[in-house]
Write a structure and sequence with these properties.
This protein has 257 residues and is an alpha/beta fold. It has 9 helices and 9 strands.
């Protein structure tokens, strides 16, 4: 990932994460993208959808490497993000970007060999409707690759420290999530698959709601996903050989039966 294209390096999230001035933040996010690309390329999908594609960096890199899909679609919430992705990546054949509302149309149902959803589900207040949609988008026998942050156990302590220091240094927007009380922090450190603390709900200017990272439990999500899909593999990043309990992100490779 040392030779990023100009279109990728100009992306908002790429500048903040992959190209962060903080070496630890940059390494963690570069490693996350490398794990995602490795998993996607192994699956050799011909049609890929990235739900919550951000600045389009992941799909642009996927389309540039080996086992590139024939067609890739990135979906995002705002017109601004979609327009920016189209401006920077619009010349790449087989790659297009749409609003998330558009992928609910019948033409998208059951047509994707692979649906990717990275660092999205932790922010969703009502996950069941979104999981219903993702399940409809995946073709029978296709795969869903999900990544979410690990915000429990020892990784939480490391992340809160890094976020605080980065915020002090004015790097990115990493002042940290909503603050924890001592009791909440202890509950997160010993959490298992139950919801260990109440998660704060925030509101956007348009009235829509979202979670920040506080209180997210990847183990609880894994149980929810396992009720809908076959969990083929669980990985971690930034180092795939680590168990997720000691990692920054958890990855799930899911099959639609």
């Amino acid at each position: 990932m040392s030779n990023l294209s100009r279109a990728v390096s100009e992306g908002h999230y790429a500048r903040k994460q992959i190209l962060s001035r903080d070496r630890l933040i940059a390494w963690s996010h570069r490693s996350r993208f490398e794990v995602g690309l490795r998993l996607a390329r192994r699956l050799r999908a011909r049609r890929v959808l990235d739900y919550g594609c951000g600045d389009g960096s992941f799909l642009a890199m996927l389309m540039s490497g080996e086992n590139a899909p024939r067609e890739a679609v990135g979906a995002e919430l705002s017109d601004g993000l979609v327009d920016d992705c189209r401006r920077r990546h619009g010349s790449r054949e087989g790659l297009r970007f749409v609003r998330v509302e558009e992928v609910g149309a019948r033409e998208h149902e059951g047509v994707y060999d692979l649906v990717v959803c990275m660092e999205v589900l932790e922010h969703v207040v009502e996950t069941e409707p979104l999981l219903d949609l993702l399940a409809r988008l995946v073709a029978p026998g296709g795969r869903l690759v999900v990544s979410v942050p690990v915000e429990t156990g020892l990784p939480l302590l490391v992340k809160q420290f890094v976020r605080r220091v980065a915020g002090w240094r004015g790097i990115g927007d990493y002042p940290g999530t909503s603050p924890y009380t001592v009791r909440e922090l202890f509950a997160a450190l010993v959490a298992r698959s139950r919801q260990h603390i109440e998660r704060p709900v925030h509101a956007n200017a348009d009235g829509s709601t979202f979670h920040d990272h506080k209180g997210f439990n990847w183990m609880r999500l894994r149980e929810t996903l396992a009720r809908r899909f076959t969990v083929e593999a669980t990985h971690a990043s930034p180092l795939m050989w680590l168990p997720p309990h000691l990692a920054s992100q958890a990855w799930f490779v899911l099959r639609k039966d």
